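Reopening this one. Same input as before:
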Amino acid sequence: MGEGLAIEFEEGSAEGELPAIIRRAQDEARLRRALAGLGYRQVRAQYVRQRQAGSAQFVGIEGELPPPMEFVRDWLRQERKRVLLRVRLTFLAVMATTIITGLAFVLVLAILD
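Same output, byte for byte:
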């Protein structure tokens, strides 16, 4: 029949352990959640301070290995885009609602005249 997908494990790893790429993806997801838990402003402030001090690792996430500064920089960029998109969509929704309300008001005035 069909052959199963063969997953190669790192040398010296136990058969029950996950491949390195999956472990790394899980670690990155955990770090992203930890950074999100701190919040954009706090992470940005700490990032700027630590970058000016010349740190290669971002220190400030309790219970986690410190991520590289490049990882935090990339997260900050992605988070900024996400926040700006959310604000932009909210603004467009409010603007559309205002225009529709104004048109309805003009329509009611035209009908009452």
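So the earlier flakiness isn't reproducible anymore. For the record, The helical segments are 20-38, 40-52, 69-112.
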